[in-house]
């Protein structure tokens, strides 16, 4: 679903479907301008979804609120293996990584996470035993 101008409303509709879906494993959602509202809806779906393994949300204008919601969902979700969220909310994600036991790949390529985000991620890696790839 790359670059389809889906927006928050479309992301919310997809999140509602994802909450009840038991087969979808990969969702590439690059460049759809879903913002915090769409990211939060997807996070709520992730908290209950047991099939999704890859979620790519790069370039969606997700701020701290949406990234925090996604990070909180990671604490509950045990199926997600790969998350590409972009630069927003690296600190919130780092906090979730400290207790997440399923995420294996976190892709933060080409993003401006800065020294604070990198420091938070470094501290989380000390506690996280599932992450195998950090881009």
TrEMBL record:
SMART domains: LRR_RI. GO terms for molecular function: GTPase activator activity; small GTPase binding. It comes from the Eukaryota. The keyword Repeat applies. InterPro entries: Leu-rich_rpt (IPR001611), LRR_dom_sf (IPR032675), RanGap (IPR027038). GO terms for biological process: nucleocytoplasmic transport. Pfam families: LRR_6 (PF13516). Keywords: GTPase activation, Leucine-rich repeat, Repeat. The keyword Calcium does not apply. GO terms for cellular component: cytosol; nucleus; perinuclear region of cytoplasm. PANTHER family: RAN GTPASE-ACTIVATING PROTEIN 1. This is Nucleotide-binding oligomerization domain-containing protein 2. It comes from Hondaea fermentalgiana.
């Amino acid at each position: 679903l790359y670059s389809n101008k889906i927006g928050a409303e479309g992301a919310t509709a997809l999140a509602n479907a994802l909450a009840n879906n038991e087969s979808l494993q990969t969702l590439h959602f690059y460049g759809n301008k879903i913002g915090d509202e769409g990211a939060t809806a997807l996070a709520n779906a992730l908290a209950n979804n047991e099939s999704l393994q890859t979620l790519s949300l790069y370039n969606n204008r997700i701020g701290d609120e949406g990234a925090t919601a996604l990070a909180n969902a990671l604490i509950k979700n045990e199926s997600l293996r790969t998350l590409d969220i972009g630069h927003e909310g690296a600190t919130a994600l780092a906090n979730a990584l400290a207790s997440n036991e399923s995420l294996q790949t976190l892709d933060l390529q080409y993003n401006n996470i800065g020294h604070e985000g990198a420091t938070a991620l470094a501290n989380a890696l000390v506690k996280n035993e599932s992450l195998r790839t950090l881009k």
